[in-house]
Design goal:
single chain; Dipeptide-binding Protein, domain 3; 12 helices; 8-stranded mixed sheet; globular
């Protein structure tokens, strides 16, 4: 889920989320596209300081670690059988190769040679089996748990081979495996420690302040470009920008204050990169709770809110309206903004048809970090124009996860969802927003069992249009992905795919 920022599951995780590559002042490339200015030499012993607003809730991505744990540890400390690149491609990682049976139900993976965990233990097929089972466990909060429930059996015929049998075909299976961290099956206390196979090891985590990583000397692949990486955590965008201006950090993973960009664009010591995001800000209705069981009410609320005005007020010229859950980087994207147009008269008409000519009241559960409070206040004002009264209930990320995501105790909520290809959650009636359309569920299931990507794409385009026309949620806008960095840096990722921020290619000039 994953979700989402609180992650929320990786939703930002699950709990707890998108993604042009045009620079505002200069262009970056694709994966590791940030480039440094000329002059100076690369310092292999450098410490790269990364500024972020998203501290982990804990260090276990199956236990509600959230966006922050994905950002800091995914690819840096932990690796999967496959890797999702900054350009959205799936590459082999801990899996050297794999074969698929003719019926599409059996996947046989061969592991890379010479891979060791940070503790020194050699990677075996038993660790892969354990890691998959951890995602599928009853208490797992992994964003990909539901996607992997097609796994029927995991066999380990030898130390280098993993054989996975599915209950039904899953065209996205390998893609979904790129989300699964392979961990040491003997590891303990993963909420506060780690034992991955990545190019960095966890050095220290000081809650509320910073998380530092050290280059792993025993890494099986290419060594990390810099000796040390430190993620520094800030409570707001202003403090984060000040840290960049005073050289306390070298790069900001995701700029959240567009009004502050000019000071970096006009300064030769910084580079502003505008990448691709997969993060959607949602006004998510509880489709099980009245009055949002009625699609006319959901459509009315969506029509009453001027998404363009909201985006301009929050992001000033950056970001994008999309009209659905699907960002332009997903294969099944279509511009559906014409389905969700701002039309106050239409909103009032729909409310009257649904029996709410005089409006109604509801509580909006709102995470306490930007831009949610601002968006909530805007929505309250807009809906008042059509007779709807909104009570804003501001909650912490942890409260959001428990109240909204886990207990479904809400009528409507604000949340960002950062993952790509997450439209399929509307095919799961058990997901937190409770959208239940049998045709959509059928299309999603058919798409997952499709024989070709073309067939999958056509079916999910149908899902995209149906959920948009039914206003399953109100997709307010797609976040921009703005990375601001010192010109001494190169190799940093530019895009906001699923909150990951691969640091192992970042180089710093001395």
């Amino acid at each position: 889920m994953s979700i989402t920022k609180a992650r929320k599951a990786s939703l930002r995780g699950t709990a707890t989320a998108a993604v042009l590559a045009l620079g505002l002042t200069a262009c970056g490339g694709g994966s590791g596209g940030g480039s440094a200015s000329s002059g100076g030499t690369w310092d292999k012993n450098a410490t790269v300081h990364i500024g972020s607003l998203y501290e982990p809730q804990n260090l276990d991505n199956t236990a509600g670690g959230g966006q922050g744990v994905t950002e800091a540890l995914n690819g840096n400390v932990y690796e999967g059988l496959f890797r999702l690149t900054d350009d959205g491609e799936v590459e082999n990682l801990l899996a050297r190769d794999h074969e698929v049976s003719e019926d599409g139900l059996t996947y046989t993976f061969t592991l890379q040679d010479g891979v060791k965990f940070h503790s020194g233990k050699e990677l075996t097929s038993a660790d892969v089996k354990y890691s998959l089972e951890k995602v599928l466990a009853d208490d797992s909060q992994s964003a990909r748990k539901s996607n992997l429930e097609v796994v029927e059996d995991i066999a380990t015929p030898d130390a280098k081979t993993v054989k996975v049998t599915l209950s039904k075909k899953s065209i996205s299976f390998v893609y979904n495996l790129s989300y699964v961290w392979i961990i040491n099956s003997d590891a303990k206390d993963l909420r506060t420690t780690e034992d991955g196979t990545g190019p960095y090891t966890l050095a220290k985590w000081t809650r509320g302040s910073a998380l530092s990583l050290d280059r792993f000397a025993g890494y099986w692949g290419d060594a990390a470009a810099s000796k040390k990486v430190v993620y520094h955590y800030y409570k707001d965008a202003t403090a984060l920008n000040n840290a960049l201006l005073t050289n306390a950090v070298d790069v900001v993973t995701s700029e959240q204050s567009p009004d502050a960009l000019e000071q970096f664009e006009s300064n030769r010591n910084y580079k502003v990169n505008d990448g691709d995001s997969t993060t959607k800000l949602l006004l998510a209705f509880n489709d099980r709770a009245k009055p949002f069981t009625d699609a006319r009410v959901r459509r009315a609320v969506s029509a009453a809110i001027d998404d363009k005005k909201l985006l301009e007020s929050v992001w000033g010229g950056h970001g994008k309206l999309i009209g659905s859950m699907v960002p332009p980087t997903d294969p099944w994207y279509e511009d559906l903004t014409d389905v969700d147009t701002h039309d106050v008269a239409e909103a009032k008409k729909l409310l009257a048809e649904a029996g709410h000519a005089k409006g109604f009241s509801f509580t909006l559960d709102t995470p306490n970090y930007d831009p949610h409070p601002t968006a909530a206040t805007f929505i309250k004002s807009q809906l008042a124009e059509v007779g709807i009264t909104v009570k804003i209930n501001t909650i912490t990320p942890d409260e959001w996860y428990t109240k909204v995501y886990k207990n479904r105790d809400f009528t409507a909520t604000l949340q960002e969802h950062v993952n790509d290809r997450d439209l399929v959650w509307y095919g799961n009636p058990d997901f937190y927003w409770g959208y239940d359309d049998k045709q959509v569920t059928e299309w999603v299931e058919q798409a997952e069992q499709a024989a070709t990507t073309e067939e999958q794409t056509e079916l999910l385009k149908k899902v995209n249009r149906r959920t948009a026309e039914e206003a399953a949620s109100d997709w307010l806008y797609l976040y921009p992905q703005i990375v601001v960095a010192s010109t001494k840096l190169s190799g940093y990722p530019l895009n906001g795919l699923n909150s990951q921020f691969h640091a192992y290619d970042i180089k710093k000039k001395g």
